[in-house]
């Protein structure tokens, strides 16, 4: 179906909903690369005006990627909950924005609405929202998940402690782990990106993390971010797997390029559930996403990168994940050119994920070939903290020496918690105090001495 | 300096830095990074930014390989310059018309080799300049030691990983080994990536490739990287595939512990 609007004597025509969505998207290099972005600023706003008139129901009738050829579309349509959708089913995209910002959209109302929303509806409304809208509505959402602790509660902000090492050296990993723990990081997950997919190297890291969690009785969970099929193999051979990881995307073809599909994810999800390693809850999956991944696999099918990204959250939602992490600036300048584009994308991803009921975190990051720097990351961190992000990354001095990019540091997390009045996950906070890492006021207590439970390491310094 | 000692809280575990290049034990002023650490980071970032834009000295690299007795073909992607390369990855994945034509002409005059080695500058000319020559020589020797024939080394300017597919296909090679400069990190501007593909052809995705990352003397050493690559190649030849279904199971856990490095947190 074609869409059109008359503006100042000009008629703007959009061939279909997919094209309308793409042209209504705030400027980003990836959509330009794909050749689907608006030609100019006026066409972009014309598309936004036109999109605001589209009834939300229309997205159920006109899938952007055909139902027959894409299992992600089938998942979205087949799992749509019409009853949950009822409160907003009569609204247009523009009216939906008003409704979201209104006092009617409270935390419990938004939680009940989530299964009634599709990624396309959520992506559409985000395209006509400003940064403050994305923050205000996201801050009203609350998505709580549990494994060995509780992540996503209001007033809390967790971190993934990311102790990556270029050769997976055990002492090198341990040094970053200790540094992070003593800076109060690691409640979302102790999560390593292994340097290789080598099975033995991967399972050795799984064992290392599990040993540390058990030795110090840390109320957290571990994950080695390797392919889901390697996780399955590790589970079958008895390695200690807490969270199962996989990168996912919003089209079947992009997921194909990752070597996965819904059936493989389902198999891994069931295998992890059977392990029963979570003490507080059964959220066992950790997914990573990022705008541009579908296009980078040449699998976007004419859909703009932000909408593709939100479709990935439908894949995530299917498996009740513990953590979903948009690795926003990792992909590079051909998709998100500069700090401005990265900041907006991070806020969109968080808003869209939360509205769909997905436990969003963000790897607030950039690469050395992007037009961005630490100032941009400070801005995104402060904004996402205000928006109620579930978790961010924590890494020594912002410098990932394995993946070669910059993300938030252990110090950054403490900054955000301090200025925004946030605390770690409650179980982890209690542990930090028990260990003498935090004082009774929740402030960092480490001085010239190692906290008592770590004093034995003094011999190794 | 007396003022510093009263305001900055140093970390007693800073000496653990001998185990890692990660920026651990930075200390803190309040909960923030002290001034010297903050400015050290800014300098590293500035150096990495500059490194992305330094062009590969192709003549020097080619000379190195020719001196070692290897044949070299110099190619260029469709990305005319670095700016275009950064904004148009699709251009970096395909050869320009002249390069494709020259490679085709070359292939017509030769019997196809089993394997081909491609070097692409990627995002770090520093990595390629420093390690690609030696790595290519090692891979060339190791492949020949397996009884495989190896074609000339193709060096591609402004090239990305997938450009190897087109080169491999034009040369009619069964096995493709591609060396590429990885994104420079703050502490590792010289990291090389090795991508291996069985049956390279235009249109393959990452799922069809195996990657060995962070190849550099301070990361995964060149000799060990070559061993891992050869393990993959042997398995791949046996199973006639590459990519996610081919897991790197080279070595065993004990062999990996050869460094004697231990997790001191458990002592």
TrEMBL record, chain A:
Adenosylcob(III)alamin binds at residues 194, 246, 296, 402. Pathway: Amine and polyamine degradation; ethanolamine degradation. The keyword Lyase applies. The keyword Ribonucleoprotein does not apply. It is found in: Bacterial microcompartment. It catalyses: ethanolamine = acetaldehyde + NH4(+). Its EC number is 4.3.1.7. Substrate binds at residues 160-162, 193, 288, 363. Binds between the large and small subunits. Its cofactor is adenosylcob(III)alamin. Signal peptide: none annotated. Keywords: Bacterial microcompartment, Cobalamin, Cobalt, Lyase. Catalyzes the deamination of various vicinal amino-alcohols to oxo compounds. Allows this organism to utilize ethanolamine as the sole source of nitrogen and carbon in the presence of vitamin B12. NCBIfam families: PRK15067.1. The basic unit is a heterodimer which dimerizes to form tetramers. The heterotetramers trimerize; 6 large subunits form a core ring with 6 small subunits projecting outwards. Belongs to the EutB family. HAMAP family: EutB. This is Ethanolamine ammonia-lyase large subunit. The lineage of its organism: Bacteria, Pseudomonadati, Pseudomonadota, Gammaproteobacteria, Oceanospirillales.
TrEMBL record, chain B:
Binds between the large and small subunits. Its cofactor is adenosylcob(III)alamin. It comes from the Bacteria. It is found in: Bacterial microcompartment. Keywords: Bacterial microcompartment, Cobalamin, Cobalt, Lyase. Pathway: Amine and polyamine degradation; ethanolamine degradation. It is an enzyme of class 4 (lyase). Adenosylcob(III)alamin binds at residues 161, 182, 211. InterPro entries: EutC (IPR009246), EutC_C (IPR042251), EutC_N (IPR042255). The keyword Transmembrane helix does not apply. It catalyses: ethanolamine = acetaldehyde + NH4(+). Its EC number is 4.3.1.7. Its main location: other. Catalyzes the deamination of various vicinal amino-alcohols to oxo compounds. Allows this organism to utilize ethanolamine as the sole source of nitrogen and carbon in the presence of external vitamin B12. Belongs to the EutC family. The basic unit is a heterodimer which dimerizes to form tetramers. The heterotetramers trimerize; 6 large subunits form a core ring with 6 small subunits projecting outwards. This is Ethanolamine ammonia-lyase small subunit. The lineage of its organism: Bacteria, Pseudomonadati, Pseudomonadota, Gammaproteobacteria, Oceanospirillales. The gene is eutC.
